[in-house]
Every structure is written in structure tokens, then in C-alpha cells.
Fold these 2 entries.
Entry 1:
Amino acid sequence: MAMDLKEIEALIKEALPDAQVEIQDLAGDGNHYSATVTSSKFSGKSKIEQHKMVYNSLKGKMGNELHALAIKTKE
Amino acid sequence: MDQQVKDLINNEIKSNEVCLFMKGTPDAPQCGFSMAISNMLKILEVKYKGVNVLADQSLREGIKEFSEWPTIPQLYIKNEFVGGCDIVKEMYENGELKKILEDKEIKFKK
């Protein structure tokens, strides 16, 4: 029940190719991350839609393999 | 999703102006993220209903499908999904949460 930082980054970039992604392993346990995602694709979208785009890029892993990912989105 | 679960969720968000789906209860949150939103609402002295998803596995899964949101906690204000922990925290810090409460005519400590 853990995910590699690089794997998360790759999934987000696959869905949002222009994204700048900064990920931190908060607890060092491969289970609690924070991600700051900057993408032009967020422009004109609500925060909820932006976060959903990030969740969707993780293809259902959020809440399963990935226990906690704090997300911050920027345009 | 089970119709019964859907009805239950609809009933909670319609009958409670501010409704927080959380792990644990407002008095005893079972997860740091649920506690964080709970505390923000307490600081703002907002009257809210905490719905403990840990008490019901079908509700725990159902609310994710209902909101199309994969994580808990989830905050609803007047029937509208506001966000999870990250978004609500950001809105609390930049003043947007107060603005929503004001716009939706919810009583809170200014």
C-alpha cells in the first residue's frame, strides 16, 4: 500500500503534459505525499475541477494505494 | 451506488446547512484531515453536522462516488460540495471560506 514518488509524478505528467510537479514525501513512508501542480490546463477551472483533474490522472490510486496526497494547484 | 445510500446522503446535505462527511465525530475525529476541517469550523463557530463515514462502510464508499471525489473529509454547504481538506484549508487561509459562508447566509464568527 505505497507508491513511489516518481510514479505519482509520471502519472500526473502523463495527464497534464505541461505540468510542473513538485512532490514531497511528508512522512518518509511512501504513503503521505504533498504535490504542488502548476499547469496551464487549470486556467478557467474551479479549484474542485483542478483537484479532480489531478485525482483523475492518478487513475483510481488515490484513496487506495495512495493513502494521502495533499494537493495544491496553480495556474 | 445503492439508492438507500444516495437517499441518506441527499437527506443529510439537504437537512443540514453545513454538513461534513468525516472519519470520526466532531468531538473525536479519527483522522488528521477530518480534524483539520472540523477545527476550522469550530474556530469560525459554524453550526455543522458531522457525519461519521467510519460508522457505515457503504456510506464511506458511497460519498466518494456521490461527490466524484476520492477522499474524505468532504464539506457540503447548502447542498453544494465545497471541497476536501486541501481546498477548504486554502479557502480558510485566503478568506474565501468566510465569503462563501456570508454569501450562503450561514452564521459564523466574523
Entry 2:
Amino acid sequence: MTAPLLVEGLHKSFGTLEVLKGLDLVVDEHEVVCLIGASGSGKSTLLRCINLIEPIDAGRIVVEGEEITAHGVDVDRIRRRIGIVYQAFNLFPHMSVLDNVTLAPRRVLRRTRAEAERQATTLLERFGLADKRLDYPDRLSGGQQQRVAIVRALAMQPDLLLLDEVTSALDPELIAEVLSVIRELANEGMTMVIATHEMGFARDIANRIVFLDEGRILEEGPPAQIFREPREPRTREFLQRIIEAGRL
Amino acid sequence: MIEETPRAPRNPVLRVGGSSRRAVAIALASTVIIFGLIGWVVVNSPGWERVQSTFLNWDNFVASAPRIIARFEVNVRLFLIAEVLILAFGLVLAVLRGLPGPVLYPIRLLATVWVDIFRALPGVLVIYVLGFGIPGLRIPGVPNDPFLWGVVALTLVYSAYVSEVYRAGIESVHPSQAAAARSLGLTQVQALRHVVLPQAVRRVIPPLLNDFIGLQKDTVLVSFIGVVEIFRQSQIRSSATFNFTPYLVTALVFLLITIPLARITDWLVARERDKRYASAVGAATTGSRRGRLWGGGR
């Protein structure tokens, strides 16, 4: 049995700043793992390393039994299988919604335009975006843009989906529509690693909560345990601050 | 929250003060007085009679205009051919200079040196060197048509400038756009071609047009290597008639062609600026913050 994702002894520094200090993580099939922790604890960096956007300094990352951090691995082939959605959406502003979604299937998977558009339209319909097909990103609300970004990642039919604080750039009233999309994906069994500040959401959706602190996993476990009876004082402290900020 | 969308600040020189008609009247009066004064000084200068007959000779104008204007066709042809080559070659240079990785350092270096050299040399020198030097080598099979070498010289000089414009455009596209493309599995080249370049090129159309106004004028430089184009033709007419009026014909042709192009360029620049300003303000008010800063490109 090979796990969709295995991270071992991951180290990553930016200059002299060591962001990830030997991190181990296993994600099982259909599992939803939420990464929580203060800003700068390494959540985003971990996701960017898994998607090979950031080169790692030490350790290894194995996806579906294949070591993707090995020398000479075709990074483009790996990235096809791992979807990532960013906090700032990063839609392509010069393309319609449909073109945003079909670009990678057409250019990377070599699908025909008709085929790619059929598949994209089905996905957009599912997430209530069918009527936005021909709009450009700047005509959409933040929530709509983020949903398009998720659809764009899904169009590549990834084995693993990484979500990097996807609601952090949204107004509060727009967050729910994005979270409901993610919830639906979780119900369908999509394997996901989600970096988030939405603790209520993490508690609802995650099979496992991973608390990152200064580049290490300090504590992990089922949501009920982490949120109700965290073992580590730092976890308790972090959750206390979240509660005081009214976010839980 | 800002409710109304504020306009981008206009150039104060172009703004006629407030709503008052008085301001317009003052502007008008002061324009008339100043230009009237300049006109008066010129017309009453001791040499006016002489200048009038040598520069502003109507009969000469009417006689010279058709032949000189006909030669403008050479400039237009030169301009159109060079422009296409410059757009393509400038883009190649810009992309080469942006290639990543230590392996490709020699290519980057070569492109950089190339751009530096042709930006540093006066255009007319490049035209001379190519137009006289290469035919002078008498290499069999190498053409010595001055028109051809004029096109090549202008392409070399202007593509160096244009590549810098492209490069500024490429660098203005936020790196997260390339990252988003790469994380979907697109290769470096695909990301450049489908995501970065389309946005970059759109942004630099106004400055590119600006360079082409310069190119349009510089087409007269090829007259130095013996191409009989509009300037050379007016020179010929001028020597034949002992009168400078033919040059006035050439000047008017360039004014008629260049000023509208300059106005269009300014209009495009202003529109691009307003659009970016408006989309930045719009993003701040709708809460889609960063997504919109790169938006507005259509």
C-alpha cells in the first residue's frame, strides 16, 4: 500500500532563514489533512515544496510510491498529478474563465479543444460557474475567482490537491461559497492537504489536524483531540489566541 | 470605503482650470498674444524676404511636391519591413536575455552585449558600416543593395531598444502568474508563451508605438548610403532649383504622418493607465484585493 504522499526529513531554507526543519508527514488515500499554525510556521512553504515550486534542501517527498525529489525527475510530469490552489487565486487575467480552465488540459494533456471545453463546462456547472464561462477574471467576485482557480486545478484530475490558505484573501461573506466547494471535494474522496486559518472549517472537514510550529510538526491528531485537548502547551497557546480573535 | 471611482490625475498642463469660461478666455488670449508676437518678430526680421523666397516658395512647392511625395513610398516600405523584423527580433532578444539557469549564461551574455552595442552606436554609423562596409568586402553572393542594408541596420538598432521594452513588459508580469502556470504542469516555454508573453506584450504596446515613431523618422538616415527616398529626393530637388522649399514638403509629410501616430500613442498610454488605476481601486473596494491588480488585460 503506497500513500499518496510521504514527506521525510524535509529541510528548506531561504538564505539563512530555516523555514522547514526536518518535517515528516504521511497522507493516506482520501484523507483530508489540515495544516494549522501561526504565520511563518512553514505551512505554505511545505505545500510549495510538495508541488516542487520550491526546491528542497534535504529529505525526500514520495507521491504514490514515486520519489519526486529524486535527481532527474521530470517536474512537469509530477506537477500534473498534484493540483495547487493559491491564496491570491492567480487566474490568468488575459483569458476567459473557460480558457483558464482548459489551458493546461489542452497544452499539457494534449486534449482537443472540444474535449477540454466539454470537461471544463461540466466542472464549472457543478460548482455553479457555468454562466461565467466566457467572463474574464476581473469581472468575477473574489469567491468566484477562487472557485474558478479550484476548477482549474481539478481539470487536470490531480491525485492530490493542495490548498494554500484559499480563503485568506476573501471578504468574510465570500468565504462560505469556497469552503462548500472544498467540502464537496472532501465528500467525494479527494485527497487534500489544506493550509488554513479557518479553524471551524478545519475541525469540520479534516480527518487529521497537523499543527506546525517553527518549521516542525509539533502535534497531530484527529480534530476532536487537537481542538479539545491539545497535548502541547504551544498548541494550546495558539488555539487560545485563535479563540480570543473570535475565529473558532 | 471609497464609493466613487476617482479618476487618475491628469497632466495639469492639459487641464484648463476649473469650470470657468474665464480660464479658457485667458488661455486663448495668451496663446494668441505669444504666437502673434513670435510671428511678428519673424516677419519683421531683416532676412524675412530672403527666407520667404528660399524656404516658402509656393511655385517651387507645387512643382516639387508630387515627385517628393512619390518617394515617400520608399520610406513606407522600409518602415513596414523593418517594423515586422524588429518586432520579431526584439522579442527573441528579450526572451534570450530572460532565460534562467547557469547553463544558458553564455546566451544571456551574448544577447546582453548585443543589445548594449546597438543601443550605444549612433544609428547612422551602423547604416554607414553596413551599407558601405559589407558591399565593400565583395563577398560573392552577398547583395549590395543599399535598401536591404538600410533595413538590416535599422532592424539591428531598433530591435535593441524594442527588446528592452519587451523585457520591461515581461518583468512587469507578476512571478505568481508563471508559478500558477508551472504548477498546472505547463513547461517553462509553455508558461512563457501562453501566460507571460500575452500579458507582457499587451502592456508594452504604447511604448512600442513610441519607438516606431522614432523609426519612422529615422528611415531618412538610409539616404546616407544612397537610397533615394523622400529626404534624398528633396535634396536632389533642392540642388536642382537652388531653393530649400523641397525640404518643407518633406517636413510636412512627416508631420502629417507622425503627429496622428503620436496622439494615438498618448491616448493608448492614458487609457492603459486609467484602466490599471481603476482596476486597482475597484479591487480595493470589492475585496478581491490582489486578483485584480493583474486584471484589466483584455
